[in-house]
Amino acid sequence: MSGNGHLPVLVEEVMDYLDIKREGIYVDCTLGLGGHALEIVKRNPKASLIGFDIDEMSLLKAEEKLNPYADRVKLYHSDFRYIPDLKIEFSNIRGILLDLGISSFQLDSPERGFSFNQDGPLDMRMDLRNKITAYKIINKYSENKLAQIFREYGELRQAKRLGKEIVSRRKSEKIETTTQLRRIVEGICGWRPQRGKIHPAAKVFQALRIEINQELKSLSGFLERITQIIPKKAHITAISFHSLEDRIIKHTFAHLAATNNSHPFLKILTKKPVIPSQEEIAINFRSRSAKLRAAERI
Ligand SMILES: C[S@@+](CC[C@H](N)C(=O)[O-])C[C@H]1O[C@@H](n2cnc3c(N)ncnc32)[C@H](O)[C@@H]1O
């Protein structure tokens, strides 16, 4: 995630774990505003970059940022899960980067509806071609389905009660804004601001975002497929911002590296996830929940 002034997170660690000094192609699966991508092409004149984002607005911003290096950059408005189907020189790939979740650009755009701190429509689509919005889920999904989403993707203790409350409220008026939803959550969870405590709406908004953008759906499958088509010595670096995603990355890497496999595909480079330093968190508060894991194709 990029933070204040769109700072890419763990940037030195990402450059090291990707081993960006080598000549060849680096793939940024989640370009965002192009912070990491820019560092790669700026630091290594022999690197070319292929970048993906499902958010067209982010892609346009990244394109602008990367313009001085346009001859070595190719960008796609696409979900990264389709990368294995592309006709690119997979044998020239040296590094794959995933920096999952939303960017500060998305979070700071109230009209996108990602932030419970800013009033906006209940949208939360990364890809505006997607037909499912937060509004549709909140106003149309059944009580049980809502509860399931809040429990599974938000790990919210009051998931069942919140599902019930939403269904009851929407009978009298449509729930249309981030503020309306935040207030309902605050009521059900008995929210009192407290230092160090996570606002329950953060969990609810995370859950909705994951459901709308199908954020967990193909992560494991993608990691497995891409690992099998990149050349030996290529590095994969993945940053996640919540435990559900981190768990998928950890388990998929472990499975691909398992020594009881007749042919392990990966060597894990990070025994424990790498996290930002206190200095980085002080400069870029949103980096605080980042976890980086890296592996090498063997
Ligand atoms: C945390 S930001 C990346 C920030 C970026 N590394 C930078 O330095 O600016 C994550 C980006 O991934 C995009 N994204 C999320 N899921 C995606 C997917 N399945 N395919 C492509 N892009 C995705 C989001 O739209 C968002 O712009």
The hetero compounds bound to this protein are: S-adenosylmethionine
User: Distance N terminus to C terminus?
Assistant: 29 Å
Q: Give a short account of the largest sheet.
A: 7 strands, mixed
CATH superfamily of the largest domain: Vaccinia Virus protein VP39
Strand content: 5-15%
Helicity, as a percent range: 40-55%
Q: How many β-strand runs? A: 7
What is the CATH topology classification name of the largest domain? Rossmann fold
Overall CATH class of the largest domain: Alpha Beta
Helix tally equals 12
Unreliable segments of 5+ consecutive residues: none
Structural class: alpha/beta
List the helices and strands and how they pair.
Blueprint: H1 11-18, E1 24-28, H2 35-43, E2 47-53, H3 56-66, E3 73-77, E4 93-99, H4 104-107, H5 134-140, H6 143-154, H7 159-172, H8 178-189, H9 200-213, H10 219-229, E5 235-240, H11 243-257, E6 266-268, H12 278-283, E7 291-297
Parallel strand pairs: 1-2, 1-4, 2-3, 4-5
Antiparallel strand pairs: 5-7, 6-7
